[in-house]
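Notes from the 1:1 (GR / supervisor)

We went over the backlog. Supervisor wanted to see one worked example end to end before approving the batch request, so GR pasted a single chain during the call. The sequence is below; no edits were made to it. Supervisor asked that the structure be written out right there so they could see what the output format looks like.
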Amino acid sequence: MSSNNSVQPLRRMPAEWEPHEATWIAWPHHEPDWPDKLEAIRWAYAEIVRTIGLSERVEILCHDEDVAAEARLYLTKNDVNQNIYRLHQVANDRGWLRDSAPTAVRTANGAIEWIAWQFKAWAKYDNYLRDAHVPRAIQEITGLPGIEATRPDEGGRVVLEGGAIDTDGQGTLLTTEECLLSRIQWRNPGLDRAGYEKIFAEYLGIRQTIWLGDGCAGDDTHGHVDDIARFVAPQTVVCVHEPDPGDENHAPSQENLRRLQAARNAEGRELRVVTLPMPRPISYEGQRLPASYANFYITNRCVLVPTFNDQNDRIALNTLADLFPDRRIIGLAAADLVLGQGTLHCLTQQQPSL
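Structure output shown during the call:
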């Protein structure tokens, strides 16, 4: 945990619960992400659009003309109101917009600006060249200005994904050592803890970075924080906790819980830490998948929560209902969705209100 209180923020990354102008997603088309399940995923996306549309407009990137026609067909069959979404033909590889899309910040004069990170498919896959152009496309569609984040050591652009960071909107940020400091799936070789904190301060207005340890088992991003811990209010964070000592998530979740309980926010205050359960392990062909209730998405009026046909679904939904008394808590089936290595938060990116 480190503090950067000497930096006067020029920008501020809003918390996810602050008002949205829209939510951005990309219509699924990359079948290898969901082997034998792409048809079910299309129906799932239609329901996701319908549900987000209860609160705000949904902007949908479509890889090509055929994908746009397909999206329109599924949305129409699912009786999704045409007034709640817009389709944009923008080529993309895999469509996980939390990670490939830019991060929105509010500047000192209150304007919205897009921060474009360099996307390299989690330093794991080689099909990302189309996704790398998504930030520019979103900037052009919205007509909002954008800036490319660069390293303080003159090492070029910053490689980062939105799922690696989470903020309270007041200068405090969560991230993990496994994702940003490990040499496995190394995003920015040579960039250390202090270097990242300079980047967070400059581009996101962060004054306090809370470093957690490892992410959840099965996460092919190698440690994204949005599967393990999330801010739900300025001084409140939820943290997944696995009580079974025989489960591979037990020790990392214990350590992350300990770190959060000892942490302070940018104002030097203790955090209220609330635990979320984890669903039973879900696997595909012997590979564990990153099923987590922490991968929820906060819209203007609702919180969309992934569910897994598990007895802990109810506990997770009730826990989040207590934390968001002003929003509807909506569980969406994600047992198929997680086959693509992500769920509701991974596929969405918010655009704050002007």
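Supervisor's comment: The longest strand covers residues 20-26.
Batch request approved.
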